[in-house]
Amino acid sequence: MTISIYGDSGSGSFRRVWAAAKHMGIQFEHTPVDLLKGESQATEFLAINPIGRVPVLVDGATVLSEASAINLYLAEKFDSPLLPKGNARYETLQWMFWSAEHWRVFSSYLFNERIGKRVMGVAEDPTLVEFIFTNIRSNAAMLDQHLAGKTFIVGNQVTLADFDVAAPFSQMARTKTPYDEFPNIMAWQQRLLDEVPAWKETKALLDDRMDRAFAAFGITF
């Protein structure tokens, strides 16, 4: 039975699943959900995921939302080294939880403030942006220190933690997030693009989707 993954190719969360699945060599059917057209709130989609968010995986009777949960499911189902054994497994999970609690949340706030408001024709709140930047810089400093002398987040091989923590880079150029102040983070991100073809491929697809979408609103970056 074919695995179906619902998502918008401009979504950083969908990119995490898309890239991880491609890296694992998993064949799946992509069912597009256009977020800008409100398709995630359509009755047909809400019947699959009442939360109304993407991505969503459907594998027979298994229906899962949330990108990290989907990636964990796929890695276990296909016994992928993206979810390693032993202590490295728990370190991978630690960084995935850290990313959700402390890292990606602020990039989401920044996207809504700088991009979402721009689409709606509303000015961003500079005080809120500065608050978000303060939190991003604080967490980035810790991540940058962790990455000193390391190839990837957990040891010398790519894991699900890398896909989780790298997700905010999907919108870095549009939100002007100050990750470039942290050399170890930037070097790690470049390694992902150089050494993980699926991460580079999905970046190109996401950028194309976002550029076309924003052009329709007369927005350029």
UniProtKB/TrEMBL annotation:
InterPro entries: Glutathione-S-Trfase_C-like (IPR010987), Glutathione-S-Trfase_C_sf (IPR036282), Glutathione_S-Trfase (IPR040079), Glutathione_S-Trfase_N (IPR004045), GST_C (IPR004046), Thioredoxin-like_sf (IPR036249). It holds the Pfam family GST_N. Residues 1-82 form the GST N-terminal domain. PROSITE patterns: GST_CTER, GST_NTER. Keywords: Transferase. CDD domains: GST_C_family (cd00299), GST_N_GTT1_like (cd03046). GO terms for molecular function: transferase activity. Residues 85-214 form the GST C-terminal domain. Belongs to the GST superfamily. PANTHER family: GLUTATHIONE S-TRANSFERASE GSTA, GLUTATHIONE S-TRANSFERASE-RELATED. This is Glutathione S-transferase family protein. It comes from Pseudomonas vancouverensis.
